[in-house]
Structure formats: C-alpha cells, structure tokens
C-alpha cells in the first residue's frame, strides 16, 4: 500500500489533532478531514480549553494520566515557543476551591500541572464561602486560534479538508482505505453508539481583561477561565439535554454564581452566550474496528467520547489513534501481500 | 486651615485623600488644595506598570517594609469592593527569576502564596536556575490617579495647574501647611543631593496571552536593569532600564532595542506582540524615603512642611503607608497648633 488514503471524520480538536498525528507518524499517508462543521462552529469552539482533566469512570486511571501527560507536555512546549500566541496556547494560574473537603486530596493529575499545592489561609480569605482550595498553574488552548493553527499545520502538510456531512461511514469505503471516526457528539448518529450522551454546557464569554487567574468551584459547575481576549464564565452540566439554544435564565444564574466568586466581574462587558454538547461516555472510545458488509471490509479507528475532558487529553488520544491507524495499515499491507500469493 | 499639596502623582493625591478622610471631621475648616504642573496621564505614576512589589532587600529599613505591608493590606481589602475596577486594582501572579539562590525577600509573607519555583517551571526560563512565584496586586496609575482625583473632587478639594517655585510662595498666600509630594523635582523646591533620577524606559505592547508578571534579576547590575514583563489590563509593559543620574525623559532607540531583545529572549512569543509605544520616566530615587516634618520660620510665624518624596521605583507599592504616616504628622501639627493657638490676624 504505497499511499494509504485516510479519512478523518470531524474537525473539532479531536479530529484535527488526530489528523495531525497521523500525518506526523505516517508521512506517506494521504489524509483528508471531512466535517459538517469547522471552526468557529465546532463544540471545541465553545469550550474554554482548560487543561484540567475530567475523570472517566471506565478508563483505567494510568491511561488517562498518560493521555493528560502527553497533552500537557506537547502544549507546554508550544506555550514556550514563538508560536504560542498564534496557537492560542498559554499558561494560566489560579485556584480550585471547595465548600466541603474534596474527595481526593491529590487528584491524579496534580503532579503534571505546575506548582500544585493547597491554598494558604490568606489565599482562602478571598473565597469566604469556601473552606478548602488548591492552587496550581496549567495550560489553556483558546479556540478558534488553536483549531485554526492545527488547520494551518495540516494544510502545510498536504491535508485536504472538506465540508461534508457524513451520514454513514460506508459512504467513504470506495474513496478511502481507513476511516477515523472523530465525530464527537455526531458518533451517536454516525455509528449508533447509545453509550454516548450529551451533557449540555452553557457558557458566557465576556471582556474582563483584568481577570488574570482561573477560579473553579470543585463541584465543577462554576468556573472562570481567562482566555487571550475573553473570559469564559460557566456553566452547566445538563445530562441528556440536546438543546443548543442559550437559556436566558441560565445566563443570569451563571453570571451571578461567577460574580460571587469574583465580584469584579460585575464590570465585565460584551457578553456572548454559547452552548455546547459535551460528547460524554463512561470511557473514551479509542479503538480499532473492522466493519464488514457484503464481503467488503472497512478498517475504522474510533476516537470519540471525550466529554468534558477533550482538550485535556486530546493529544494523548490522537497519538493512540494514530498508532491504531498504523496497525490498520500494517494489517492492510498484510492482506495485500497475502492476496498476491 | 489651608493645606497645600505639591504634586499630583500617586503620592500627592493619596496623601491628600488620606488626610481629608481622616481629619476633615476633626477640622471642619480644613481647605485642601493640590498644586501641580503635571496631572494624570502625564505624571511619573502614570507610566509605571503598577505592580506592587518592593525591592529585593529593604536594607534594614523596617519602616519602609511596614509601609509596604500597610499598602498591600489596604489594597487587598478593596479588592472585592465595587470600586476595584475603577481603581485599576486586581490580583496578579508571577515569577521572580535569578541565576543563583537568594534569601527570601522581606515581603514574602505580605504577598499571597509565596513559594519557590519548581524545576519544571524553571525549564521555561533557560539561564535562570532559581526563582519565586507569588500572587501580588496591580494598581494601574492610569486608572488609580483619576479615581483619586474624583474622590478628592467629591470632597471639595481644589486643583491648581501651576508649577510652585517655592514653599514661601504658598505660605505668603495664606497656606498653613504644605505637603511636599513633588517627587523627582523636589530638588527645585529645596536642594537634596540624595535625590537622583533613576531613569526608566518601557515598551507598551499588546500581548494579552501573557497572564503572569516575569521579573528577572541580575544581582551584579542592580534593580530594574534586567528584563521584566508585566501584563496590565490593556497592554503589557516590557522593561529593564535603570540609569542612575540620567535626567532625560526622551525615549532612546538603544534602550528600546535592549528591552525588546532581552524580553523576546525571555518570552519568544513576544516577537508576535504589537508594539503600542515607548515611555520614559524618572524614578525619584533616594537611599530612603524622605517622610518628615520641617518647620520653617517666616517672620513671627512658624510654617510647616511635611515632606513625602523619594519613593524610587516603589511609589505605588508604598504609597498608602506613607500617606497614613503623612496624615499622622499632619495630626501632630494640628495638636501643636491648638496648644499654641494664634489669634487670627494679618499674615506675612
């Protein structure tokens, strides 16, 4: 197989980073990204892009930790390079605060982020309603810049990108040798995965350039994440809701909760309201599969179901998916050499 | 009781406000006036980035350390007030970088979350092997000075745009007490060889992805001669110039290049930052702050001057502690004047 033709379905952070990893590990591959949405209209564009992992109940912790570590290392290098501002990757420090003692004193990722330590009494005075806290520094990937930067690198490497709604993976079998499914929430329809469910998140993006720190309530519902130009205020976690329309009552509630954590937000300007559906699953599906129909085989690599943790583990899962694509190619080469006998 | 403040930088305006807040109730006849030839945005305080951070060592000057602490605590109490944004006040965290281990600074317990940098964090800064991380405050002069001016105006304080040539000039007009907050130009009012300019130059850039201050130190060269990057609410300040004895307020192309090259080496992404402009200012440097009373005899009258100048590169850092000390000095003047009540009459 001289030049394997790989189709990546999905152009959010998972699709683009997976396509890039495939290009990096398999320079002879011809990679095409197909998606009905590109930045700034993907789920990733709504997300703040903070590297604070979500814990997946069905994925072994060591695997999640490796994904996070790979992603953090990759982005840390970018943040330290001259490309940092174009890529939208930057360091941000801040606090995670708790009203009651956290379940885990040391989350699995505490030694990967920078400077993780409990907050001092003096620091906690800034949060009169909270009794415990953790201070650390992590990375943030601002979107659209990060996605646009990935697209630019893909184009430079020869990747084609097309706006196309793929309704069925089999549509692609005549044009492509391998299909990579990074369809996020779309995988529910595309591959009929009933274990995939939306967790609706509404966020506000405001202009408040004096806010230099992130603040997150340990319950995960209220957070303030300063980006390059806007601060993301959140949020909601509505399991099973498919609605993409902003809810005004929710907007008011998010704003009030964030102002009680950071009173200066009362002076924030230019509010934009956005909604995204976190493509949630008990475990991220990074897996090879060979679909079969009427004697025809279609190798598929799945990489979806990252829920609330897409940015945190994107590069790690993209690496794994690219590795699985490599296995698919070897298998195809095995078939074709057997076919020659 | 007429009180004239000379100088409308952070020292003059905050001293005026502190005195009015604390003593107006006790002295209903208090008339406060501010005289200056430069007002915001043209003062030295307007050009400063506004980061609260004292020098590395207080040289045993515990009084200044206390004033720094009083300022920090005062500002921290205002952080959650509705005024914070208008004051230009917000929390900021960041790094101090060294090429060798150094003792902890006098202010380590004043700021929040002071700690040493981890090896992984130091990877970000090749050439630096030791450092601190802490959370401090920004108080941007361009916002704080207008805020102080508004508070003073509300209180009926009058402002006069003129260059005062001598203390006598004000006393002959009937002023009872002068607060000398003239900063760099205090020498024009009364010679002070200890007061020297510490010229600084900065480049203002747009680099909104930078969320932390980064201050490098070269212990051999001295303070502010090593690159620093301080992100504000509108733009980021790049600096690293301290020229003792240089009175020039003109921007120097050589200094611009030195700042730009050294800051870009520190943070490569700055190469993509858009330059907004340069600014030069003179830090009113002195071995210690001059904060004291001076009685001047004018005929049969005793005129009082309270000096409050020489805050070098830490004016914003120390301003409120000094303002309160100046107010206490003013309080003692008031007490003495009551004891030595002079009948109202013609003045010299």
Automatic annotation (TrEMBL), chain A:
<dbReference type="GO" id="GO:0005782">
    <property type="term" value="C:peroxisomal matrix"/>
</dbReference>
<comment type="similarity">
    <text>Belongs to the DAMOX/DASOX family.</text>
</comment>
<keyword id="KW-0963">Cytoplasm</keyword>
<feature type="signal peptide">
    <location>
        <begin position="1"/>
        <end position="19"/>
    </location>
</feature>
<keyword id="KW-0732">Signal</keyword>
<comment type="function">
    <text>Selectively catalyzes the oxidative deamination of acidic amino acids. Suppresses the level of D-aspartate in the brain, an amino acid that can act as an agonist for glutamate receptors. Protects the organism from the toxicity of D-amino acids. May also function in the intestine.</text>
</comment>
<dbReference type="InterPro" id="IPR023209">
    <property type="entry name" value="DAO"/>
</dbReference>
<keyword id="KW-0285">Flavoprotein</keyword>
<feature type="binding site">
    <location>
        <position position="223"/>
    </location>
    <ligand>
        <name>D-dopa</name>
    </ligand>
</feature>
<dbReference type="Pfam" id="PF01266">
    <property type="entry name" value="DAO"/>
</dbReference>
<dbReference type="GO" id="GO:0005829">
    <property type="term" value="C:cytosol"/>
</dbReference>
<feature type="binding site">
    <location>
        <position position="166"/>
    </location>
    <ligand>
        <name>FAD</name>
    </ligand>
</feature>
<dbReference type="GO" id="GO:0008445">
    <property type="term" value="F:D-aspartate oxidase activity"/>
</dbReference>
<dbReference type="GO" id="GO:0071949">
    <property type="term" value="F:FAD binding"/>
</dbReference>
<dbReference type="GO" id="GO:0019478">
    <property type="term" value="P:D-amino acid catabolic process"/>
</dbReference>
<dbReference type="InterPro" id="IPR006181">
    <property type="entry name" value="D-amino_acid_oxidase_CS"/>
</dbReference>
<dbReference type="GO" id="GO:0006533">
    <property type="term" value="P:L-aspartate catabolic process"/>
</dbReference>
<keyword id="KW-0576">Peroxisome</keyword>
<dbReference type="InterPro" id="IPR006076">
    <property type="entry name" value="FAD-dep_OxRdtase"/>
</dbReference>
<keyword id="KW-0560">Oxidoreductase</keyword>
<feature type="binding site">
    <location>
        <position position="278"/>
    </location>
    <ligand>
        <name>D-dopa</name>
    </ligand>
</feature>
<feature type="binding site">
    <location>
        <begin position="43"/>
        <end position="44"/>
    </location>
    <ligand>
        <name>FAD</name>
    </ligand>
</feature>
TrEMBL record, chain B:
<feature type="binding site">
    <location>
        <begin position="44"/>
        <end position="45"/>
    </location>
    <ligand>
        <name>FAD</name>
    </ligand>
</feature>
<feature type="binding site">
    <location>
        <position position="313"/>
    </location>
    <ligand>
        <name>D-serine</name>
    </ligand>
</feature>
<feature type="signal peptide">
    <location>
        <begin position="1"/>
        <end position="16"/>
    </location>
</feature>
<keyword id="KW-0597">Phosphoprotein</keyword>
<keyword id="KW-0274">FAD</keyword>
<keyword id="KW-0560">Oxidoreductase</keyword>
<dbReference type="GO" id="GO:0005782">
    <property type="term" value="C:peroxisomal matrix"/>
</dbReference>
<feature type="binding site">
    <location>
        <begin position="312"/>
        <end position="317"/>
    </location>
    <ligand>
        <name>FAD</name>
    </ligand>
</feature>
<feature type="binding site">
    <location>
        <position position="164"/>
    </location>
    <ligand>
        <name>FAD</name>
    </ligand>
</feature>
<dbReference type="GO" id="GO:0048786">
    <property type="term" value="C:presynaptic active zone"/>
</dbReference>
<keyword id="KW-0702">S-nitrosylation</keyword>
<dbReference type="GO" id="GO:0055130">
    <property type="term" value="P:D-alanine catabolic process"/>
</dbReference>
<dbReference type="Pfam" id="PF01266">
    <property type="entry name" value="DAO"/>
</dbReference>
<keyword id="KW-0963">Cytoplasm</keyword>
<feature type="domain" description="FAD dependent oxidoreductase">
    <location>
        <begin position="2"/>
        <end position="329"/>
    </location>
</feature>
<protein>
    <recommendedName>
        <fullName>D-amino-acid oxidase</fullName>
        <ecNumber>1.4.3.3</ecNumber>
    </recommendedName>
</protein>
<dbReference type="GO" id="GO:0036088">
    <property type="term" value="P:D-serine catabolic process"/>
</dbReference>
<dbReference type="InterPro" id="IPR023209">
    <property type="entry name" value="DAO"/>
</dbReference>
<keyword id="KW-0576">Peroxisome</keyword>
<keyword id="KW-0732">Signal</keyword>
<keyword id="KW-0966">Cell projection</keyword>
<dbReference type="GO" id="GO:0006562">
    <property type="term" value="P:L-proline catabolic process"/>
</dbReference>
């Amino acid at each position: 197989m001289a030049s394997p033709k790989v189709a990546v379905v999905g152009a959010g952070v998972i699709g683009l980073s997976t396509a890039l990893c495939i290009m990096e590990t398999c320079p002879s591959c011809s990679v095409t990204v197909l998606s009905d949405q590109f930045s700034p209209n993907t789920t990733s564009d709504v997300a703040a892009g903070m590297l604070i992992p979500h814990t997946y109940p069905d994925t072994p912790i060591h695997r999640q930790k490796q994904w996070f570590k790979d992603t953090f290392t990759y982005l840390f290098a970018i943040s330290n390079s001259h490309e940092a501002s174009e890529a939208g990757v930057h360091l941000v420090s801040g606090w995670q605060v708790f009203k009651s003692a956290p379940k885990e004193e040391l989350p699995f990722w505490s030694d990967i982020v920078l400077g993780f330590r409990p907050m001092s009494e003096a620091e906690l005075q800034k949060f009169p309603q909270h009794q415990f806290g953790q201070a650390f520094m992590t990375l943030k990937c601002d979107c659209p810049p990060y996605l646009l930067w990935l697209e630019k690198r893909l184009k430079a490497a020869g990747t084609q990108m097309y706006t196309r709604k793929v309704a069925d993976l089999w549509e692609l079998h005549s044009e492509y040798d391998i299909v990579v499914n990074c369809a996020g929430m779309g995988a529910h329809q595309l591959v009929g995965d009933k274990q995939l469910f939306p967790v609706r998140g509404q966020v506000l993006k405001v202009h408040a350039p004096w806010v230099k720190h992130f603040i997150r309530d340990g319950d995960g519902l209220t957070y303030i994440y300063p980006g390059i130009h806007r601060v993301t205020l959140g949020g909601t976690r509505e399991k099973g809701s498919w609605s993409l329309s902003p809810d005004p009552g929710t907007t008011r509630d998010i704003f009030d909760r964030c102002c009680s954590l950071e009173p200066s937000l009362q002076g924030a300007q230019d509010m934009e309201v956005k909604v995204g559906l976190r493509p949630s699953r008990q475990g991220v599906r990074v897996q090879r599969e060979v679909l079969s129909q009427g004697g025809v085989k279609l190798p598929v690599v799945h990489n979806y179901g990252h829920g609330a943790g897409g940015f945190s583990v994107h590069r790690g899962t993209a690496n794994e998916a690219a590795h699985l694509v490599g296995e698919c190619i070897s298998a195809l080469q095995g078939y074709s050499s057997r076919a020659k006998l | 009781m007429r009180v004239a403040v000379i100088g409308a930088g952070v020292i003059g305006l905050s001293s005026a406000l502190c005195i009015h807040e604390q003593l107006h109730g006790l002295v209903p006849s208090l008339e406060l006036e501010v005289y200056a030839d430069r007002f915001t945005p043209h003062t030295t305080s307007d050009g400063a980035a506004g980061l609260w951070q004292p020098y590395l060592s207080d040289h045993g000057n515990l009084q200044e350390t206390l004033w720094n602490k009083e300022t920090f605590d005062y500002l921290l109490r205002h952080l959650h007030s509705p005024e914070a944004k208008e004051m230009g006040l917000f929390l900021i965290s960041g790094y101090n970088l060294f090429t060798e281990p150094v003792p902890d600074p006098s202010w380590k317990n004043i700021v929040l979350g002071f700690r040493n940098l981890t090896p992984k964090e130091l990877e970000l800064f090749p050439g630096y092997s030791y450092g601190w991380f802490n959370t401090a405050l920004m108080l941007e002069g361009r916002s704080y000075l207008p805020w102080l001016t508004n508070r003073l105006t509300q209180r009926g304080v009058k402002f006069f745009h003129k260059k005062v040539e001598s203390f006598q000039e004000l006393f002959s007009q009937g002023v009872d007490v002068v607060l000398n907050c003239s900063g760099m130009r205090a020498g024009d009012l009364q010679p002070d060889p200890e007061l020297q300019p510490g010229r600084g130059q900065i480049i203002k850039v747009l680099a909104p992805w930078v969320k932390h201050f980064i201050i490098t130190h070269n212990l051999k060269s001295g303070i502010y001669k090593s690159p620093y990057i301080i992100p504000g609410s509108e733009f980021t300040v790049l600096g690293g110039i301290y020229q003792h004895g240089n009175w020039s307020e003109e921007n120097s192309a050589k200094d611009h290049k030195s700042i730009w090259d050294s800051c870009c080496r520190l943070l490569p992404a700055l190469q993509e930052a858009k330059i907004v402009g340069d600014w030069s200012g003179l830090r009113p440097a002195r071995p210690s702050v001059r904060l004291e009373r001076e009685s001047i005899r004018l005929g049969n009258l005793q005129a009082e001057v309270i000096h409050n100048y020489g805050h070098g590169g830490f004016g914003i850092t120390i301003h409120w502690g000094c303002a309160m000390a100046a107010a206490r000095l003013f309080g003692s003047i008031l007490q003495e004047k009551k004891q030595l009540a002079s009948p109202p009459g013609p003045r010299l």
